Amino acid sequence: MPAVLSSNDAQTTLQPSMGRGASGPSSILALTLLHHPDLGRVGARVLLPMFALGQEEALSRTQPALLGLDGSAHPLANPYVSRRPLRLVPGSKGGVTLLAESLNYRVDGAPGTGCERLSPEDIERGVLLELGGRVLLLLHRVHPGGPSKADDLGLIGISDAMKELRGAVRRVGPLGGAVLVHGASGSGKELVSRAIHQLSARAKGPFVAVNLAAIPASTAATELFGHARGAFTGAAERRRGYFEQAEGGTLLLDELGEAPLEIQPMLLRALESGEIQPVGASPRKVDVRVICATDANLGALVLAGRFRRPLLHRVEASRVDVPPLRDRREDIALLFARLLEAEMAAVGASERLTQADPREEPWLPTEVTAALCQHAWPGNVRELQNVVRELAVRCAGHDRASLPERWTSPSTPPPRSRPPALPPSRIEPEQLRAALRRNRWRIGATARDLGIAKNSLYALMESTPGVRRAKDVEEDEVRAALAACGDDLRAAAERLEVSLPGLKARLRALQDG
Predict the structure, then answer these.
(1) Which of 499, 446, 490, 443 is nearest to 470 (CA)?
(2) Which pTM does this prediction carry?
(3) In what order do the strands lie in the sheet with 28-35?
(4) What is the pLDDT of residues 267-305, one digit of tens each?
(5) By residue range, what is the domain housing residue 318?
(6) The domain that contains 177 carries what CATH number?
């Protein structure tokens, strides 16, 4: 049975998974809910720990129950999702085979065929499963454990990367020393810095953020450290710099890599001794914790002569790395849902996100979320915020939300690699039936689909219960099928689950006999 995590203790008593893959031996196969008519359910998850031990799992309207961020567990429960399950069958080397009777699903945007073989690489990347045009899930691997929603520090995300980030923030927050927050532009470095501040003994003190890239080199010293009255022409009053403004609290120096070389020794002195020297005044002590943030490779800047090595060593003592959005696909949908709720409230259109009748066409279609989850997000969370804001303003008055024209061809994930064909002895009965159904029971097409010879397929059909060739169907059953289908041969073949050429040959044999 799938495992549902406790909302208070996501680190369950489940044994570590034996699954293999790039994420390590302790990873567990999981399904994470990315889109649902009830946006409050986005982020719900179910772990499938027994899958690595050979147990197949079923995904349908009624099973499994996914644990939401509010601590409640529910199945998908949408009338457009089939009750007939999409079966997840263990494949070779950590792969997964999807088997289905109902074809009302899509895999990474492609229509379901009834039998898809997903490689271990596909699972590591994460595979999008769309069910009934209403629900979107991510099939992927995760590590069990981690904080619940109640202590997410304001850093939204359920991915392993976000769990690691919150762990790093918790470790450095109470320490009190300087911290370097490194991450791509738009990834949320200031939000992480604020979380570090809130976990420190200085939480009740000020949090002052300054963008060093926006300060001209000529005024950087006075902006940061202040100046005395009369220090220079025009200095009519004493000015407190950013360090003094942050007294008793935290100073965030954003875009550290853009700090002018001239002030870097002053920054080093402030970090090492807690002492600053305002322009035209004597040195003085300040009680400030400094957090530095950058997206630059400071080591490369040192080699280029644009950054001083002693300052690099000083700020790198405690480092927190913020993951890019592209590395945490399961967080994209959750961030999208939360940002959209806020933006729709801002434009007075929150009612668009509620659906009284689950059979109604939703305002927010699944394909919007799917497109966002397939985007590479070079601008990270900031880019996502801009997309959500534009969508809310543009579509609030429409019956259906859509992405702008430039989003009609999102950067899609790499195509799934096709695992090598299985030998006939390893083809499961369900795989055989799905392949026959997919190819309308045509022998040649099915053999090519499975990657086996025709004679091997014939032998496999002979040994598989419930699978037969048209020549083996009794005459009474043939006549009954024709009568039920109004003598439509194609429909009768579908009903009998045999190929159309085979049924025609069987009828000729009956007539000749």
Answers:
(1) 499
(2) 0.75
(3) 73-74, 66-67, 45-47, 28-35, 135-142, 127-131, 105-107, 110-111
(4) 999 999 999 988 878 899 999 999 999 999 999 999 999
(5) 160-322
(6) 3.40.50.300
